[in-house]
Amino acid sequence: MSLPPGFLDELRTRLSLSQVVGRKVMWDPRKSNQGKGDMWAPCPFHHEKTASFHVDDQKGFYYCFGCHAKGDAISFVKETENVSFIEAVEILAREAGMPMPARDPKAQEKQDRRSQLADVMEQAAQFFRLQLKTGAGGAARDYLIRRGLDAQALDRWEIGFAPDGWQGLWDHLRGKNVAEDLILGAGLAKPSNKGKKPYDTFRNRIMYPIRDPRGRCIAFGGRAMDPNDNAKYLNSPETELFDKGRSLFNHGPARQAAGKGQPLIVAEGYMDVIALAEAGFGASVAPLGTAITEHQLQLLWRVSDEPIIALDGDTAGLRAAMRAVDLALPLLEAGKSLRFALMPEGKDPDDLLRAEGPAAVKSVLEGAIPMVKLLWQRETEGKVFDSPERKAALDKSLRDKIKLIRDPSIRTHYGQEIKDLRWQLFRPQRQPQNRQWQPRGKWQPPKQPATPGARSSFLASSETADIQMREAAILAIAILNPTVVVQFEHQLEEMECHDPDHAALRAAILRHAIDDPEHLKDHIFETLGGEILENLLALRHVAVIPCVFKPGDVEKAEMTLAEELAKIKALRGLDAEIAEAAEELSDLADEALTYRLAQAAEERNRTSRSQNEDRAVFDIADNGARINRDEKDAFQAIMSGINFERKRR
């Protein structure tokens, strides 16, 4: 509809913005100056305790310094009443006593019909409420009482009953001279295909009126009293008034409660919403018999930045939560998301309230998890990732989901969160240090602890020398050549870093090198500071590595990383043998143990046999000591630290 020039200016002139806004807020008397039209209040658009919402009556504009909402009287009514621009103008024009300009005849006709349909729906609601109080509604009343609803609650929610007859409502409305086409158009009756008069849509059902945010009855939801009925719940068909994908049960009251700071809860059905609201959770809504739609999601976000999806604790509830995740991912914006509160298994919110009370529900709501955690749970719960192929399948599935997010900033944060969760799932688990090896064959006396010489031997402490130095080299190469990290991600994840600085650097590399290799060093500076990186690169054995002092040679970096990771793996193998051997040592030992140690040392010897470069890298200047000394000497060192006695035969 086009409005004549000057109409809106005249409307704004006649209205006081502070009066329009004052219906929805409580002014702060300490900050407000009514004489100057300078008014302050807590914002009606987001939850806050301070008065950061400012209304300038003279200019006719409002602005929130918290959520940055701004506009005039028309935009305020649009947002708070959830109406269209023209509907907001109509509301304000009625307040100002201004007649609306003549509309297009077809538009006016359509609006008039919608008003007539809303009137018919209101008459139907009153009919159903009266029927609940009759003898025919006795079973329905008993059911509602068992569900914990007293007479006052029934009146508050305007719950009614559709009697078990074919034309009960039809005859009632026709008796009030309601036109047949209006009864049919409101979805209250259906035409007969047998040439008879139309029959009621709802029969023998408890009736829940569905109202739009302005309070108009636009539809009904009916619960069957007959357990054999094909449809336990039945909604009104879609009409000129009702689009179930764009409507929410209890929308208007929930919006008001959310504006006062209550969390917005999305439950599954009418009784869940009623039970929650009666227990003090007034900002509760429900979709109408379908999964949450995109339009409903937008309605929810207009009420709250993070609605809580509270679903039944069963398989169907979890499936509904997952559908909501898939729907919301492409629509996410900064500050707009969902949280999920899953009820205990086998219970819905109403069940939990009746069994354990509001405190139990509050606890579940406070423990609501963000979307990213539920997404991770869906892709990992009940699955085993014991092979590279299964891990790769998980990575692909998660990447495909994250790609759905349109906002690049949110997509980046989701990727980081998933990477952190993945690291927690796949991080290497250290083997317990008190393993008990049970030899085959004859019974042996209990083992005694290893001798101090064995525990302090050179090879048993190599993890704090050779391995840490090679870890430092690997980290430096990865940081200065981050494009190669993607090939070694799994090996880096499995690399144990007992040095806290090494562990922090390794985590930063895995977190940022693959997604943003160009700014890896910047991320490290931001999160860990510059000192940790400077200390790493200043190490003498690190500084002389070719791909460290002259980064950029990708092929050389790949070769060096592969070499060093292989050496660490071999050194770990030797340490594992020594650790196990130390636990098995006692006053008695045999040649088999000696043979195992010799084999492990020889394997290390083969792996660590490097060129002159490797020896230069791992030289240490202190006292002229050389960490990477000849392996034969190393083996003799451990052997000299243990008192071996040949086993008695």
From TrEMBL:
Keywords on record: Coiled coil, DNA replication, DNA-binding, DNA-directed RNA polymerase, Magnesium, Metal-binding, Nucleotidyltransferase, Primosome, Transcription, Transferase, Zinc, Zinc-finger
Catalytic activity: ssDNA + n NTP = ssDNA/pppN(pN)n-1 hybrid + (n-1) diphosphate
Enzyme kind, highest EC tier: transferase
Region (Disordered) location: 430-461
CDD domains: TOPRIM_DnaG_primases
NCBIfam families in UniProt: dnaG (TIGR01391)
Protein name in UniProt: DNA primase
Source species taxonomy: Bacteria, Pseudomonadati, Pseudomonadota, Alphaproteobacteria, Rhodobacterales
